[in-house]
Amino acid sequence: MDAHGVHLSKPPEISSSSFWMTDFVSPITSLTATSQMLILLLITTLILLNMVFFRLVTILSRPPPSRRSQPSPANPTHILIVLGSGGHTAEMLNILSQTPCLQLDFTYRTYVVSSGDGFSALKAHEFEKSLLADLSSTPGLSIPEGTASNYNVVTIHRARKVHQSLYTAPFSSLRCLLDCIAVLNGSHRDLKYQHSRGYPDLILTNGPGTGVIVVLASLTLLFFGYSGPSPAFMSTSKDSNREVNRLGGQMRSIFIESWARVKTLSLSGRLLKPFVNRFIVQWPQLARSEGSRVEYIGPLVT
Hints:
This protein is α/β, with parallel strands linked by helices. Helices cover 44% and strands 11% of the residues.
């Protein structure tokens, strides 16, 4: 009550949190509906981009795989090898020929070639025959049953043909990506046998453009949680083997830069360098100029 006998009401208290909330919301509510939708879309996009980024970081920073026991019917292994036209196929097979027990180290082998590259497909078949001949001529070596037939040569659509328009290249690349996903999950039409092992343990490429799409397909599958052995295979595994088998099918990737690349990386190499598990070059000066993610372990082509 004041000096004149008039009752005065106490003004309502406004908390600091309410003040700041009002101060923040008022400009937004004063915007048009279109502007509010654009702001909401921007915020949603930023959240999704952050989720994608952290998921990719999780995939790319996976710890190195632990050493696995010798391959066997209860513990099979699977390698996927990308071949390419030109000198890529010859160089890759030359590197692999220095691994005489490739057929024993990897129970299943999948060779990926692009459409129209019959030469690479033929060379893959000849390479498997030569490996088997070398194993057969080794005294005292036991060759598991099915070694000669446990491989596939798969043809996928080419990502971009020579002189193809840039306007249609995204569509052909998408078709190639879908083919690669089908190869990785074992559902491609060219697979002669449907092994129950699941996804490949290792992806090996040395520079063809197809290899970029294959690695991209593996990252897409890993992003959505698709990896490892198939549930059917795990259900038939013994308890003692399940933990070991669970480590397989993780689609680790190795990129081997071409021997011809002495001072600079190829376009495929520059694209894949941040995304593969190991990046190997064949010249020491190239390794020094490209930083810590690049390895030099000596020349691999003989």
